[in-house]
Write a structure and sequence with these properties.
By secondary structure, the chain is mainly alpha-helical. It is built from seven helices and six strands; from the N terminus they run H-E-E-H-H-H-H-E-E-H-E-E-H. The strands form three sheets. A two-stranded antiparallel ribbon has the order 1-2. The protein has a two-stranded antiparallel ribbon with strand order 3-4. A hairpin with an 8-residue loop joins strand 5 and strand 6. The longest helix is centred in the last third of the chain and has 41 residues. It starts with 6 loop residues before the first helix and ends with a helix.
Length: about 210
């Protein structure tokens, strides 16, 4: 499992909440376990107590994305460093799940489960994955969706650093909204021009009397 994979853990957790709409899917231990994806063994360690702990980590991870989104690189890095210090990782060399054509293990770095609890384990790998992405690609590759009211987190992997939305759906919605806004502006300008022309004609006609 590559370290870059773990950055998705951070995005997944942050996006379990939609603050603008007052929605939160992280309301049960089952929801916590779903965040682990295919990492079933770690998910089974989650208990009801992890719901509150996960929400706390989520708020801190969102703060990292929010700082990066506003261009405050130092704050983003400091917040992420605090998470890394509080939730240290235990790297191990692994080859149990990936093999080459000859059946030999393809050795790679793997982050072992945290011995404390499910929250500590998830936070450790999410923070490490996010740190890897940040140092590899830049702080400006972390962002929050610009398609209001959505503020989902995303990782920009585009070649020209152009990503602004969390999904194709939000990008389409934002483009449609922008198109409609332009059309309304054009219509208002056209109506204003028409009113100005009518007023000018009335003024001219009045002066000729």
């Amino acid at each position: 499992m590559e370290l870059a994979y773990y950055s998705d853990y951070a995005v997944r957790l942050v996006n379990s909440e939609d603050p603008a709409r007052g929605k939160d899917s992280l309301t049960s231990v089952e929801a916590v376990r779903d965040l682990f994806g295919s990492h079933k063994e770690a998910a089974r360690r989650a208990t009801d107590a992890d719901v509150t702990r996960f929400r706390s980590v989520r708020a801190r991870l969102r703060s990292v994305f929010a700082a990066a989104d506003t261009g405050d690189e130092s704050t983003a890095v400091n917040l992420l460093n605090a998470l890394l210090l509080e939730f240290p990782v235990s790297p191990q060399i692994s080859g149990h799940d990936v093999r080459d054509d000859d059946g030999r293990p393809l050795w790679h770095m793997h982050l072992a489960d945290h011995p404390s609890n499910a929250t500590a384990g998830y936070a450790a790998i999410a923070a490490m994955g996010l740190a890897f992405h940040l140092t590899e690609y830049g702080v400006d590759r972390l962002g929050l969706c610009e398609a209001s009211p959505c503020r989902n987190a995303y990782l920009d992997t585009s070649t020209n650093r152009s990503r602004r939305y969390c999904s194709d759906r939000c990008a389409t919605r934002a483009n449609v909204a922008a198109y409609r806004a332009r059309k309304r502006l054009e219509a208002d300008r056209s109506a204003g021009t028409g009113r100005t022309a009518d007023s000018a004609q009335r003024t001219t006609a009045h002066g000729e009397r």
